Amino acid sequence: MLRSIRSYSTHVDLKTTLQNAIPAKRELYQYVKKNLANKEIGQLTAGGTIGGMRGYKSLLWEASVVDPNEGIRFHGYTIQECQKFLPKAKDEINDPKSEFLPESMFWFLLTGNKPSQDQINEFSNELALKAGLPDYLNKILDSLPSSLHPMTQLSIAISALNNDSKFAKAYASGIPKNDYWEYTFEDSINLIAKLPAIVGKIYSNTYHNGEKLGELNLNKDWSYNLSSLLGLTSNDSLNLNKLNQDQSKDVVNLVRLYCALHGDHEGGNVSAHTTHLVGSALSDPFLSYSAGVQGLAGPLHGLAAQEVVRFIVEMNSNLQNDISNSTKIEEYLWGLLNSKRVIPGYGHGVLRKPDPRFEAMLQFGLKRSNEFANDELFHLVKNLSEIAPGVLKKHGKTKNPYPNVDSSSGVLFYHYGIKELLFFTVIFGASRSIGPLSQLIWDRVLGLPIERPKSVDLKTLAQ
Ligand code: CMX
Prior knowledge:
Layout: H1 14-35, H2 46-50, E1 64-67, E2 71-74, H3 79-85, H4 102-111, H5 117-129, H6 135-143, H7 150-160, H8 166-172, H9 180-207, H10 222-229, H11 245-261, H12 270-279, H13 285-296, H14 304-318, H15 326-338, H16 356-366, H17 369-372, H18 376-395, H19 406-415, H20 424-432, H21 434-446, H22 458-462
Antiparallel strand pairs: 1-2
The chain binds carboxymethyldethia coenzyme *A (CMX).
Protein name: Citrate synthase
Subcellular location: Mitochondrion
GO cellular component, one term: mitochondrial matrix
């Protein structure tokens, strides 16, 4: 049963809802700062310092926590709970196959309050109104070679938007520290709003000669517009993959679920931590998140999304479509491990059980059993999730032999026709904005200081 969650009047917008939550949180921050500064919350060890700071509780992060065994909780709520109480698109409220919206998740992450349907309808509309790209950005994107990795293009586009940063301008004009959050908030909303158009343009420029693939629709939600600009909705002038009405509806819901679930995973992952670190120097949200995107582009983090699909496609071809043959699958995996390669989509820095985001994405396909009945890649991912943990356990190195978030989502997009491997992490990049940017706003509300941990050399550690 769902616990009760605060929700304010349906007429209060996101900024006011946030504003209402600020005094209590500022008071709590001051209390901790004044009274509990010396409270111990863990021990530092030489092993932790040379081992990527695993388990160091050294970052303030408000919206989510990852439990090693249960996975992500957003303000204490599981994925399934969020799926039940967060608002859907206004014209699909009663559709059981329709998923809740990433903008609902952003609202919840940022304020800790459940938004009403009216609030989300208005917020989706605000995002659509702010979605257009300035001319200079279109020109920058058009000037990039299509051979440039789409993640590099994404990072360039986001950092270029700092040309219009309200925070940077306000800071230069000397505003008081207590007001920083308001400009950070405006920049963050503008950035999130523009991501569908940026992502759509990168896709079109890189793979479709800059052709127009869809339209921004002011009456639709953020994910619908993102799907449309990727040429995935059946009403578009160019329905690239010739999806029928049901498939188009499904793929929009895939984008909704994927983006809502990939948005935040507490503070220590590379993209979130990098955004927070760069933002701690008072770099504006565009510069901060652009740095986060560069971290997401690493193969041990978000780029695993592309590596998983490459790996599944290659394994399927190697198995000659014999996807239920566990002996052959095990042999294939041992081949990888013996050549010192990792199994993409498996393992995690914190989790010690299968990632519930993996399960939720797998369920998306399983619920559409007719649609996915003949999709060998999807079924291979499922079979692999039952076989690979045993192999990794025997291999004996990986602390978490189970599938992570990147394991299942790529093949779902592949099914609906997004087959350009290098592009997968760009969708992750659009999604990941919502968690780190919510935290960046809180960083400015609380006035967190510049991050400056102490480093130590090996000689000192060896003493
Ligand atoms: N396949 C093979 N070996 C693996 C492995 C995997 N999937 N995951 C971990 N290992 C190995 C590590 O390489 C390490 O080996 P060495 O001791 O020789 O260096 C050993 O097991 C211990 O690693 P760990 O403590 O279990 O894992 P880390 O916290 O160091 O790394 C992660 C976590 C995700 C980088 C790692 O599991 C990995 O490389 N996985 C494959 C890539 C991937 O799926 N990344 C996506 C993660 C989700 C995301 O952030 O998007």
